[in-house]
Amino acid sequence: MFNLKTFRSTTGVAALSLTLLSPSLLASQSSTQIRNTPTPIGVSSTMATIIENRQVSNSEVKAPDSTKAWLEVQQQLNSEFSKLALKAAESLPVSYQKKTIAGVDTFVVTPDKIDPRYADHYFMHLHGGAFVFGGEEAALREAIWMANGLNVKVISVDYRKPPLHPFPAAIDDAVAVWKEITRQQPANNTVLFGTSAGGNLTLATTLRLKELGLELPGALFAGTPATDLAHTSDSWHTLKGLDPLGSREGLIQGTFEIYVPSSDFNNPLVSPIYGDLSGFPPTLLISGTRDLLLSDTVRMHRALRAAEVTADLHIYDGQSHGDYMMGLFYDLPESDDALAELGSFFDTHLN
Amino acid sequence: MFNLKTFRSTTGVAALSLTLLSPSLLASQSSTQIRNTPTPIGVSSTMATIIENRQVSNSEVKAPDSTKAWLEVQQQLNSEFSKLALKAAESLPVSYQKKTIAGVDTFVVTPDKIDPRYADHYFMHLHGGAFVFGGEEAALREAIWMANGLNVKVISVDYRKPPLHPFPAAIDDAVAVWKEITRQQPANNTVLFGTSAGGNLTLATTLRLKELGLELPGALFAGTPATDLAHTSDSWHTLKGLDPLGSREGLIQGTFEIYVPSSDFNNPLVSPIYGDLSGFPPTLLISGTRDLLLSDTVRMHRALRAAEVTADLHIYDGQSHGDYMMGLFYDLPESDDALAELGSFFDTHLN
Lengths: 351, 351
Known about the structure:
The structure is a homodimer.
Chain A: H1 4-10, H2 23-27, H3 45-53, H4 67-91, E1 94-101, E2 104-111, E3 122-126, H5 140-150, E4 153-157, H6 169-184, E5 191-195, H7 197-211, E6 219-223, H8 234-238, H9 251-259, E7 283-288, H10 294-306, E8 311-316, H11 333-349
Parallel strand pairs in A: 3-4, 3-5, 5-6, 6-7, 7-8
Antiparallel strand pairs in A: 1-2, 2-4
Helix pairs in contact in A: 6-7
């Protein structure tokens, strides 16, 4: 049986992982950090406090066992994450509006202050959440982080999701929005980005654009992307018990299975690590030394480099899945640092 | 009591780590891999075989307890590692000769085929081995790897070491040789490189050149460098039991203590992570997801980036400390890949 309380305490399945749930909620959970490790030396005092107070377990959480059960969990988590997103939207100098683009639900996030170079310009965002979660207003979290951090307008795609809309609905939606955005601004001056499942979709959508012969983005940001849904990369094993994301077995594997009912996990549009990456745009990847998707990230970096793609890798000491984005809620130097790297990378590579 | 058999089986203290000892020798050891982890997905079949056959333990090995005992172990390991180096020298199209430069022992390694761009040109190498080991002909291992891999002549410095010559003798020797080399060729066209303790010395020597107001190298390669001797970085804890290097406690800490008898581990020339890195040359760093010095490496990368230094990070999935260099003895795609990255980096950044 699916147990939301255990789920909350042992996984962080959404884009930013459940580490972004409120501390009071986390404090109510019973699981504890199973690996007895000192606080990392190479982190800020804020990050150290986050790590010291987080709940980590590697116990397996069962996936919901029916479409109805999936929909209930999806709705409940969307609601919780949306509250966090709205809190961020209120506390930061940004505004947002819903907009239907090419028939797809999106959010347009506008910072109060816009970088003049990006005045008539949008970045395109694909949110995370294990392909199933993180939609509706919850999608705003990373979009706000980027919009506020780089003073750029962001269009975040609330793509269709399982259980009702499996692969390739999300990619079809992303392509449709991409076509519309690039009618208004040059593709090679447009960033496509996302974290976790959003990192997967960023890479997969770019592969799909290649297949369709469409113009590619000017640069990509793939944050701790899930790049291999067919095989379990090493860091899922080696870092178990250190990352609040928990465990791939059970629920997370379940999200992959309802995302790809055909189980064709070797399809490059499902697992971009297996794709033909030649001609890919410059790509920035971020992970952490306690990130269960560290191996997925560094394998993707090597695959891009093997295809002679410009690809920069940044690994934060002690960070778990998506931690760099915690600057949305904390004054976090590592988050500012990541935004500085992103800004510098886009300055260099956008047309 | 110091036990060489246990030491061999549980640590990999030298530049290339003891993983480069012969498989037959490793097979004779009794320790086993303590963390029950599947073979990493993201490695070549050769690397997979190496990982599957390696002996890993995290048990602490006591350091020798007298100068005499240190000297005996030093000589014994130098002898063993030198045999490996000579085997590589015989099997690969390179030659070498001893040469005293500025009063310092060095080896000049010359590949049969020299890249025309480097015809009158040397790279400068500082070998690894926890500051104590890896000298004499053992120093040739990484020098041969680079010379053969990039078709470039390499001067490898057999710097003075503890227990007889603690810090800063090694750096003084490196600076003396650097001055002599850069009398013959432009500094900004000269690479300085090393792995492990050699990576530390590469960074520390560059800091010292800055202090002295001397010209800096055109580019650095710091392979899985020990950058923080004052504090134990996170991956020493989180990856324990996965890396044949073993454990920092005991012997490795002992090498740090005889390298710096004053225990001033916060001195930036001892722990370059604490140095003023502004104006540093472009630096390439390599580590692996099972490398006990992963955190030391990524922390250094962030410190360089914070100082606005061009710094590229490459992390190999599943690799432990210095594994990329195993191409010296195996047909290893990851090793070829690392050499390709190094060649490309130097092409871009050397004058």
